[in-house]
Amino acid sequence: xxxxxxxxxxxxxxxxxxxxxxxxxxxxxxxxxxxxxxxxxxxxxxxxxxxxxxxxxxxxxxxxxxxxxxxxxxxxxxxxxxxxxxxxxxxxxxxxxxxxxxxxxxxxxxxxxxxxxxxxxxxxxxxxxxxxxxxxxxxxxxxxxxxxxxxxxxxxxxxxxxxxxxxxxxxxxxxxxxxxxxxxxxxxxxxxxxxxxxxxxxxxxxxxxxxxxxxxxxxxxxxxxxxxxxxxxxxxxxxxxxxxxxxxxxxxxxxxxxxxxxxxxxxxxxxxxxxxxxxxxxxxxxxxxxxxxxxxxxxxxxxxxxxxxxxxxxxxxxxxxxxxxxxxxxxxxxxxxxxxxxxxxxxxxxxxxxxxxxxxxxxxxxxxxxxxxxxxxxxxxxxxxxxxxxxxxxxxxxxxx
Length: 401
Description:
Elements: H1 6-14, E1 22-26, E2 39-40, E3 50-51, E4 55-58, E5 68-75, E6 89-93, E7 105-108, E8 112-115, E9 118-121, E10 131-132, E11 143-145, H2 153-161, E12 166-170, E13 174-180, E14 184-185, E15 196-197, H3 200-211, E16 214-221, H4 225-237, E17 242-246, H5 257-263, E18 267-271, E19 275-276, E20 282-286, E21 289-294, H6 298-316, E22 326-331, E23 342-351, E24 357-361, H7 370-375, E25 378-382, E26 394-399
Parallel strand pairs: 5-6, 13-16, 13-17, 14-15, 17-21, 19-23, 22-24
Antiparallel strand pairs: 1-12, 2-11, 3-10, 4-6, 4-7, 5-9, 8-9, 18-20, 20-21, 22-26, 23-24, 23-25, 25-26
């Protein structure tokens, strides 16, 4: 089977992915969730003409320097003055309070001098000055938030101001993670002389939860076909939207991921991608469940997570533009000719004296080295067959969070 280009692999993975169903959550719990439907305003904001400053609500026609106006009451936020303002009158008003009928401008307190029951204007103000008209922010029925938006603090505040006590959001996609390999043990567990600590599933789980997904931990399976198949069945029974196996995706005698997935009903879409790191990636379907086999080297796992698993979770959430966005930078060091796989080179970033973003490859690029991945701030993307590149030339990067 020929190696598939990365862009084609991403397109085939995401083709036909439908967002998961919606659920309603209280607005206080909506942060980080993805809207499942458009939201329209249920009220006008502000619902009345409101003062933008502390001062006096007056008629602009009454204002000249030295004008003396009788103060007839107060308008306070949450408790307006319920009577109109006539010629020669003023109402003491505070920020956010309703502007009483008859008044059409605000004489701010810095330009007013109080004298008992009167206020003396020290300057004129035009009509409309310091007044927020009704509907200045939005009007009832305005569609302000669209399906597919991830609700951060700003958007939660807007939805609340629109008078939504709860919102329809996509439920959390369920991603089942299974690490495979006789060599793996959980952090803190007794470690044999030929074993290593499992880290890949924990790294991917953190990324999945940060996106708003739910992780189903299938643990660690030894290199035993029956055990791996049993764990896959657990993921299917848990109604996982994605079942992702880590390790065993290549062609060695103990690489059992593809045989196990196919034995449990996976229809293979593609296997092996023209990329480094991450070549032996498996993608298939089991009904509506996406099945993935990711390589076991830690950097390969995390880079495949960035390019494939995280976009898949975002697509299940109904987000738009789910793929990582490439940027341009300047190479900080020369790079040799690339082979026929798309290369993702770990790099540090800095801003040069001219303001340009400079990406410098790290000295070691072995796909087993998590310390180098943690140090990296970006991946330099080198297309298949790229010629040698000199320091100072333009390159393409994907920023790492």
